[in-house]
Amino acid sequence: MALFLTNLILLPLLLLANFSPTPSLCYVSPYAARVHQSATQTSAYRTYIVLVEPPPPGADEEGHRRWYQTFLPSSHIGESGEPRLLHSYTEVFSGFTAKLTEAELDAVAKNPRFVRAFPDRMLQLMTTHTPEFLGLKNGTGFWSNAGYGKGVIVGLLDTGIYASHSSFDDHGVPPPPMKWKGSCKAVRCNNKLIGAKSLVGDDGSYDYDGHGTHTSSTAAGNFVTGASDHGVGMGTASGIAPGAHIAMYKVCTAEGCEESAVVAGMDAAIKDGVDVLSLSLGSRTSVSFRNDPIAIGAFSAISKGIIVVCAAGNRGPIPQSITNDAPWLLTVAAGSVDRRFDAGVHLGNGKHIDGEALAQVTKPTSKPYPLLYSEERRYCNYEGDSSIAGKILLCEDNFSKVQQSKIRNIMSAGVVGVVLFNNRICGYSTFLHASNSSIVQVTAADGNALIAYTASTESSSAASLAYNDTQYGVRPAPVVAWFSSRGPSKRAPGILKPDILAPGLNILAAWPPSTSSGQGLFNVISGTSMATPHVSGVAALIKAIHPDWSPAAIKSAILTTLDIVNSTSGSILDEQYKKADVYDRGAGHVNPARAADPGLVYDLNSVDYAGYICWLLGDSGLATIMRNSSLTCAKLARVQEVQLNYPTITVPLTSMQFTVNRTVTNVGPADSKFKAKVDVPRSLTVRVVPETLSFSKIGEKKTFSVSVSGHGLDKEGVHVEGSLSWVSEKHVVRSPIVFVVTGGGTAPAPAPSS
Ligand SMILES: *[C@@H]1O[C@H](CO)[C@@H](O)[C@H](O)[C@H]1NC(C)=O
Ligand SMILES: *[C@@H]1O[C@H](CO)[C@@H](O)[C@H](O)[C@H]1NC(C)=O
Ligand SMILES: *[C@@H]1O[C@H](CO)[C@@H](O)[C@H](O)[C@H]1NC(C)=O
Ligand SMILES: *[C@@H]1O[C@H](CO)[C@@H](O)[C@H](O)[C@H]1NC(C)=O
Ligand SMILES: *[C@@H]1O[C@H](CO)[C@@H](O)[C@H](O)[C@H]1NC(C)=O
Ligand SMILES: *[C@@H]1O[C@H](CO)[C@@H](O)[C@H](O)[C@H]1NC(C)=O
Ligand SMILES: *[C@@H]1O[C@H](CO)[C@@H](O)[C@H](O)[C@H]1NC(C)=O
């Protein structure tokens, strides 16, 4: 930690050490990332994000710019006279982005008003597609009560937007609220698309990639009938908050997203007056909050009442792979939906295996063909093999572009079809590939069954493929997607991350008519990028009903009303069909209708977070993140991570009893009475004091404590899950409790008494 103090001598080293984590858009690329390297940096100039003390009070935008210039060498760069100052921030923090040499940065750092500097990082943009889908039911009472999100502005930091798409028609959407200060530079701006701005140096906001169009329409796209990706998934599409306004901040190009542009986008969004910020991007790995401009910028946003929703990352199922894990962010994991692009494999022995296919290209046929599998050609590397004509090949998906192109070649060599099975890691969670040809994708387990079938001598090893349209009500659902990044957070293990699970596998949403990675007006892609805007849309709906609620209150409302079981009361499963745990799915699966009326909320304000930042990072962290020179850690109560008033509870289990305090605010009927209901494994004893909470006013706060002791749990790092619910006549306010064994573990279990 000490290394990260603002230290002039250490700074260049620190900067180099920090350069490795590469942020990326959080949708899944099965293919090799296209690494963007700006053409060989001829000079020693590098782009830095520099945080400095604020300008004298009252400085306007030009005043900020002049102030920032005082930190910089007066010379321009090279013969071209390129300016040094690239972005001048006024909202996210006092600071700027500039081109400097290392020696120049050292000089800037000697200015007593210098705070901190980060090298600008290039977020890789990953390319790929898979076809198709998204399922939304029209008109629950809650949806119309929330006016479908009317009056709320959802800002997205993304690749731009295809403004002409029918998802961005404005029928039924009123003009933006008076507070809106943004501008719109797109081919079509209307009451739906009220803001469009590019921070990447082009003058439009056109989406050459598709990602930003997809996420925008998921969060707040209007109703469109006849949405379909090449004929599959036909139906009415809409975003979660179809009545809300959209503001797009284009911070990524096909080559990637520069962190300085992302921060510039946040700065503009805060200034413009958005209510919700949706970030389907992030670092590849989590970074200390005080070295993470996105976390710092987001803190500024939440201090101004903007809720910030971020993707958890796509590095699952590796434990601790979560990114965007600051407690003030709402961090979203990805799961499946109950919809399937059905395609079956019928075997010669009469068995039927259910698979999926995005391109339902051939007509169902009962004609069987030989099914071929070869261990050496496991990945479909059959090039030059003429014996494959007229056969169906069984291959393992290896998520490479090379494999996809080999499959295309094989098809043109007369192969009837390919059955592509998931690898062991993906298990039952099938990531659908874009394709024009007869590819049916099946789970890892079905892959093994098919291999066994081809090896069995009794059977004729024949198979036929049949397409069966889009099926709904598929079970089990939701299932955590294999790629969804897992907790616990390395930075903040005492705060449960991810927060929430939302649909992110094989999601259908709007798409530009033509991109390098897909065509058509709707496309199916997957990632925590796709899960994020679902939750941003839900936040917009809650904001529409409760415009005065803080970001923490909205988050609490969403997190304490989640589904922890599926629609038939079974556990939510992971990609291996094991029971998903808190580090896979967070507090549970999003349930918009209940979130509007949570009964109680766990609220937090900037000062609470400041106490936490002091505990975690001390004064230098506070100065970097809070940007309020009148606040110092000496004046604040330090708030230990586990004591932060978060709607989920993480308790360290030690040999001693441990007590966690929480404060709830009544947002339900004025007169309400809640009783504590604790659900924990037998190895734990939990006492809640007091056991009932009686309220007589809306807005009234009550504090309670949860004391925990465990028995016979001695494996360091092991965690067990339980819950605390405050139950009234009308409400269940549920918080998962994660008990983490720390230190030497808990006291031994008492000897059996018999
Ligand atoms: C969904 O509801 C909206 C708003 O009431 C309406 O315009 C639209 O036609 C509905 N769509 C369907 C498929 O029912
Ligand atoms: C995937 O399989 C193809 C053969 O279809 C092979 O050429 C390629 O190297 C494999 N890639 C990876 C990453 O395993
Ligand atoms: C589908 O076919 C078209 C034209 O035949 C081609 O341009 C496109 O790249 C193909 N898409 C995929 C995903 O193979
Ligand atoms: C096709 O789907 C229907 C449900 O819509 C189902 O009853 C039927 O068994 C399926 N057929 C095949 C061949 O999978
Ligand atoms: C719910 O989950 C259980 C397993 O936990 C599964 O057996 C069941 O099919 C699921 N139901 C639905 C509707 O997904
Ligand atoms: C800075 O903190 C002080 C003390 O809590 C507070 O009164 C003041 O409003 C804060 N200033 C800003 C700009 O947030
Ligand atoms: C929790 O609350 C109890 C009772 O109000 C108090 O004695 C204790 O100091 C509090 N603990 C923390 C960590 O705030």
TrEMBL record:
One BP term from GO: proteolysis
Principal localisation: secreted
Domain spans labelled Peptidase S8/S53: 149-562
Signal sequence region: 1-26
Positions of the Inhibitor I9 domain: 47-126
Keywords assigned by UniProt, alphabetized: Glycoprotein, Hydrolase, Protease, Serine protease, Signal
Domain PA: 370-450
UniProt-annotated location(s): Secreted
Gene Ontology MF terms: serine-type endopeptidase activity
Active site, renumbered: 158, 211, 529
The Subtilisin-like protease fibronectin type-III domain, residue ranges: 643-738
Cellular component terms (Gene Ontology): extracellular region
Homology family: Belongs to the peptidase S8 family.
Protein name: Subtilisin-like protease
Organism: Triticum aestivum (Wheat)
Lineage of the organism: Eukaryota, Viridiplantae, Streptophyta, Embryophyta, Tracheophyta
